MFS transporter (Sphingomonas albertensis), 530 residues
Amino acid sequence: MAATAPAPVELVAPRPSWRAWVAVGAVLFGAFISTLTGRLSSFGLADIRGALHAGFDEGAWITTAQTVGQMLVTPVAVWASGVYGAKRVLTWGAVQFTLVSGLLPFCTSIEPFLALQFLSGIGSGTFIPLTLGVVLRSLPQRMWAYGIAVYGLNLELSLNISASLEAWYVDNWDWRFIFWQNVPLGIAMLACLHVGFGAQVAPKRWSWPKPFGVLTVGLGLALVYAGLDQGNRLDWFGSGIVAGLLLAGAILLAGALLLGLLHPSAWFDLAAAIRWPMPLLLLNICVLRLTILSTAYLIPQFLVTVRGFRTFEVGQALLWIAGPQLITAPIVAVLLLRLQSRWIACAGLVAIAGACFIVAHGMTPQWGPEQFLPTQLLQALGQSLALSGIVYTGLHYMKPDAAPTFGAMLQTARLLGGEAGLAFVVTFVRQREQHASATIGQHVAVGDAAVSQRLSEYGSLLAGHDPSGTTGARSLALLARSVRQAADTQSVIDGFLVIGLIAFLALVLMIVLGTAPSAAEPAGTVPHGK
């Protein structure tokens, strides 16, 4: 029987046409736009709040509204791509995203702005879940590694250029260009979609599922994300809003999981999603997203609160990290083709953990962008290796037919994992800062010889520049500022340390995973007639 079994064949064309390359470029460009827009809104939050005359609590929902829309539409996009085709879904999403981006800056109050942000998220939320499916369907198996490497490049590049881009818009043009930039970007994506998907195969026309299935998953994910995003501001379970969001989301997701087990559907391959080692790989995607977003939070946090840098100066520091990614992406692709992807992911996690431990060991309140640059270059390389390695390993365990499922799982792990990780790190750093401030304050007592000497030194420095006679009060203010800077620095050090430990645990998980199946087996091929 083995001798007469038909040879496996690839589900993709051996030689991609130029249209296929344009289609792949369109979805990768969409993934880049989606991530970049979210980061720009985060960095420009203060300017947007000011333009809308919104308070802190109201403005906190600006970024939440967009990502909630992305979470809600993720399962809908996967299902709709099987019913109507990826081209129609992506085109609809790009049109909506482009139109809403053009309208957002015209809002003068927070309520319509939040509604449009939600619609913008629904439009851009269709991009990332369908990216992997289009890459796998459009390219031959030997080219998948390059598509995955560019996918990882998109993530790093968009995260690290957003601060500089937002600051440049605000300083030279206007905050509105945070959103208006998406109009030409969206039009360019639409043009690529129109040209690139001309030769795409028609969808399978899956039957319409029970509405409860698709909508329950999306609504559950959206509610959980909103609870995580607002938890740190509202004191977690001390807030009825946060508790209600998390509980309602968990109940909806549990109901959707039960429905999927009892009534399997074609739009989402639940068996493939829970088959070992997919849960472990998705957990590592969550961990990796934690390391990416947390360091993107910790460095600006330190440079702004301790060193007093402006957003533009912080962006320049992060921009130096983004540039080398253009070089590392093709190198990562070659490594994926020549080495086991599991070991590439392990090498990336080692680099991430090592960079975090180096910062935690040597960081001082005098550090600036130059001191962060070597370790962040190492971490950026590690994140590219780890993300590409983990995703490529996942492809070895899934057939191309399950690519939409994998794409939806990946998008969910990215957003929920990143938000859960960021919420954890923000809460952890805040608590460590309070602990460090209290500990340091115990050694700053009135009458202490060291304290008196420090106040005397401050007074001597201020004596020639303070004719108003408030030298004593200003000296106390400078001492309090020094204590606050030391506490902030210690909290950031602790943050890097805990991220390094989490990356090390992820490394252990990848090591115990074992060798993945050959890429020629389940990932890229199926027997004839199946």
In short: The chain has two domains: 16-209, 270-437+470-530.
